UniProtKB/TrEMBL annotation:
It is a multi-pass membrane protein. GO terms for molecular function: transmembrane transporter activity. InterPro entries: MFS_Na/Anion_cotransporter (IPR050382). The keyword Coiled coil does not apply. It comes from Protopolystoma xenopodis. It is found in: Membrane. Keywords: Membrane, Transmembrane, Transmembrane helix. This is Major facilitator superfamily (MFS) profile domain-containing protein. PANTHER family: AT30085P-RELATED (PTHR11662:SF415), SOLUTE CARRIER FAMILY 17 (PTHR11662). GO terms for biological process: monoatomic anion transport. GO terms for cellular component: membrane. The chain crosses the membrane at residues 20-42, 54-74.
């Protein structure tokens, strides 16, 4: 799980002069992230085969709610619209 985040963090240290390293790090990050996504998609089927659709939908809904809440939290933490 830490592989994609390490690759994305390392990508922040690249610039236009080493653009091939940025592309390589992005590719490695996406490659390592595919294992995480594959596990997340198959896990509800292994836990409850009969209710896997309901379980996946509810967990996906909860994760989507955090995506909607993040901009509001950033807005609350930056009252002057700047860091």
């Amino acid at each position: 799980m830490f592989g994609p985040s390490i690759a994305m963090f390392a990508m922040t240290f690249t610039n236009c002069e080493i653009k091939y390293a940025a592309v390589a790090l992005l590719s490695v990050g996406m490659l390592l992230g595919s294992g995480v996504f594959a596990g997340a998609f198959i896990n509800p089927i292994e836990l409850t085969p009969q209710y896997s659709g309901i379980l996946f939908a509810s967990s996906n809904s909860l994760s989507a709610i955090t995506g909607f809440g993040a901009p509001f939290m950033v807005g609350a933490m930056t009252p002057n619209v700047s860091l």
